[in-house]
Amino acid sequence: MPDLPVPDLPAPDPPVPDPPAPDRVRIRFEPDGAQSREVRVPAGATLFDAASWNGIAVDSTCGGHGTCRKCRMRVVEGAVPVSRLDPRAFGPDELRAGWRLACVAHAEGDLRVEVPPLVTRPKAATVGVGRQVILRPAVQKRCVTLTEPTLADQRTDVERLRDALPDLELRIGLPVTRDLSRAFRADPVVTAVVVDDVLVDVEPGDTAARLFGIAFDLGTTTVVATLLDLATGTPVAVASLLNPQQPFGADVITRISATMMDPDALGRLTALAHSALDQLAGEVCADGGVDRREVYEIAVAGNATMCHLALGLDPEPLGVAPFVMAARSFDDLGAADLGVAVHPRARAYVFPALGAYVGGDIVAGALASGMDRDRRVRLFVDIGTNCEILLAAGDRLLATAAPAGPAFEGAAIRCGMRAAPGAVEGVKISDEDVLLEVIGDVAPVGLAGSGLVDAVAAMAAAGLVDPSGRLVAADAPAVPPGLAARLRLVGKERVFVLATREGYATDDPAGWLYLSQRDIRELQFAKAAIATGWTLLLEGQGLTPDDVAQVLLAGSFGSFLSPAAAVRIGLVPDVALLRIVSAGNVAGEGAKMALLSLRERAAAQALLEEVHYVELSDRADFNDRFVDRLAFPG
Amino acid sequence: MPDLPVPDLPAPDPPVPDPPAPDRVRIRFEPDGAQSREVRVPAGATLFDAASWNGIAVDSTCGGHGTCRKCRMRVVEGAVPVSRLDPRAFGPDELRAGWRLACVAHAEGDLRVEVPPLVTRPKAATVGVGRQVILRPAVQKRCVTLTEPTLADQRTDVERLRDALPDLELRIGLPVTRDLSRAFRADPVVTAVVVDDVLVDVEPGDTAARLFGIAFDLGTTTVVATLLDLATGTPVAVASLLNPQQPFGADVITRISATMMDPDALGRLTALAHSALDQLAGEVCADGGVDRREVYEIAVAGNATMCHLALGLDPEPLGVAPFVMAARSFDDLGAADLGVAVHPRARAYVFPALGAYVGGDIVAGALASGMDRDRRVRLFVDIGTNCEILLAAGDRLLATAAPAGPAFEGAAIRCGMRAAPGAVEGVKISDEDVLLEVIGDVAPVGLAGSGLVDAVAAMAAAGLVDPSGRLVAADAPAVPPGLAARLRLVGKERVFVLATREGYATDDPAGWLYLSQRDIRELQFAKAAIATGWTLLLEGQGLTPDDVAQVLLAGSFGSFLSPAAAVRIGLVPDVALLRIVSAGNVAGEGAKMALLSLRERAAAQALLEEVHYVELSDRADFNDRFVDRLAFPG
Which of A145, A625, B426, B451 is the most buried (most CB within 10 A)? Predict the structure, then answer.
């Protein structure tokens, strides 16, 4: 490793203080006629949650509200106290035999539990990385028939509604109180719209079948919206657009800088985020034939900077050491706080962030890929300017952020460009020729991130780049004659010419689409930073790359990446290619899960406690590992 | 009782469903060196609250937050479990000896408690009817010094603040989160402004000494504002104005009718209420040298209709049977919801109502007059178009509303007028002449409510009105010669001429200021309705008027009423005049108490449970008692 300078690392990423590992208990569920399963859940979780989280179907028509009395289970080992509701569902003999309602039975120690056969099958939806989510949205509609008030029954409108929904402890604000009386007097049958514990509306008549939510993936580059039918769990419509904040900068740091230089920029960035979210809301509602007023909740997964900007929070402290967020999570947000004109009192859930550089998008992605539910050794890698890496190993969940720099975004690469028509996304090199895959099947214009990785991997395989990352000379012995002509100089720098753009002579350097020595170094530093991240995480757990059962490549870039090329350049551990999975837009999947299930939302919140953040920048062994990882495997 | 028709009663007033009497426990406090006192409080109350409510001073510098550990008491009879905080304040021997922190010691059974001598004397203010209120406002300011964040301490701004205020469970909304970071970065010393559990602001520097609130008495006729210094409990400035809703009607029923006839009226009435409250807020702040932003909470006492109108709630259901309110109380109101521009996130407390016609003004009045703290037999009478009556007797608290009609407002009286310059407020009749007290020392123009009562009382005493309420003829034997000329006819109706207005000939009926037979009947019906109310309340408790220890006359009308005249016409029980007390503006005093003390606010809420509403309109004995009470005592 001779002449390689160890680069100045960008400012270190935020360490999250080391939290105590949460207490977990072991529950063995023995479903009637099915195989028993042992799960580990935080102490205090209900048996209902523990089963639902782990995809074990539980009878229930009230969604765990304690009203349907169907979620019967029998505790056969370990003890669960009798709750207030149990005596209404079971006789004394049954209680003594261990029968409990699962939704009010809290597991404080290890248990063995019999689950009777299902009478009704709960609704579920498949989202994320093969995750089965049992429907229990924060949004619920409850249709009730109210008796007319009389002189003998002068309960207020609010009391009348509360009495009709005795299982809910509703928060009822002034605006909905204003509408309440009108609905009551229009129709004795009304439908209460409740999100969490907030009464959002009371609609005349029975509207219980119509309830929708919108899940947003608020990316730095792209914003995606999915309209979900919360009664069935099915997606109704999807739309996306480029983040209109782009003119303020391609990445989070340049957008933060913009707010530091111009006092009006924050307001404008916030307005742009709002307009993007609102435009997408309009599109998916129009597309799905849904009235905007039927959308009662939105969920947003985004990195800390995107969320700060969308909420009008000054992002400056995120951009300068010591990288402090205003808040980790936000209670009591309305869709209006994010500029989304759906139901005027619709609520909003914004994914909590682990840190300024391990944001809500990563928490959502970890949720969607079930990083907390799987005891196998798994790596989750979200590649971007800042690369977030999660390692799940048994009970441990670790996170780190690696400063990969802008190589993958195309900005730092001479001929780099965004993944758009004309961008090279795949490169194959034979002895004779170079074959390019171009987005949109047009003439090549530039090189996308995935094309960059592919190109360097192919060049290393062809011997055009040596293990230290140096472009070989055109007259080097290993260079096939058909390729030698592509090894040229631009100025004094060696380059490899992939193609000549349309309208240029083959010999005109102005028309070359090439990779330069410096481009290869940029990629080399980026992949080394990422590989150092997962290497140190694995080493910390006494693991090697061979132990890794699965690598999830997340984010829009990760999804396009060729697993073979990623292994080839050492960006991910050298495991069987089948174990490398493009997880797709996991942040968006996480946002959908949060809309579909309060339990998943609780699991996301629990991740804040469970994930241990590993700070790389102050590690003595970082530079050694970084240098080790610079090489391109032979 | 010959020819008197029993009037058609106005629509009946709302019965509140009979609540179970709350459990109460007995606590005997034995203060060091002072006389011991037994009090009765709701089960579960803390010893701190029980003592504070009853004016027994308790050492405390944190106001019962569990942080100062000064409110030490020793339970010598009965048991109070050891709380989580007690072991931090006491050793094991002390705990065994019964020492507890009063603010976390809940009385679930009867107790005897020793109170050690005071080290610091808590701040207190005298308000209401001689009520001593120990300062514990919902508004609190907490000055904290924050450490600078570092790479090793990247807690979010919100976490940093929460950790600095470990005794509070703050609700932190998005707008204050936006301001948080700015304050933190301006000054490491910041002052958190907290109202209840809501973080209202974080101000740079130490501003802990400046905190204010405004108490509003939102009357149908008059609106009064008092600016209170919440650090000291002292009133800083007072202002009042006529309710600008008057053009929509003098009383609540006409204003409700206005909203039923014109769909825009509610919006206009709400805007008028807001402008009145906001104008007064501006006046008291200017007068007191207080920045509007230093006002962090307002409290409003008003009847149900005034509160509905001010909050933009449709009042129509209050005006038609079965008289249903939209809500009894309101959580989470901001001053902005009432149109009051003080601190933009200032909170608002609106007194809860017992019923559509026993509103928050009466609850505030009952609080201010300590109706729940006194075991004597006491009557509270708030005279108006609707007359609210409370009876406290031992542990019982009863309420009723008597439909008095408009006699006292002047509207139904031929020469009636509002209590304004030119209004006769007192009348004395000798054998020879009639002596008038006129507001503003000008020539008489009309008759105010208090003057009406005075006049009829004096006429009854002089034999000009017989016990049945009939005006005697001018030639009746009992009429003194000096007064006979005043007994005249207007049309076919007998009248008694009190004066001739300026600019008229004595013989010109157009200039007469008189009381007609019909006026006397109006008053007679009104006072009979009121007297029937308290008679039935007393009878229901097996009491007679002789048992009444105190009569409190509340409201602006009641405050001007001559106790002697009120007894004379039978409006109040015939008790020693010293026992009849003008309680003044008790609703406004109650609003002040709510600002000064969360405990008083809790007591107001408890009144909703404790007061038993007695419906008069469906009582079989109502008409009998009403006829009994029509006579003017001889």
Answer: B451
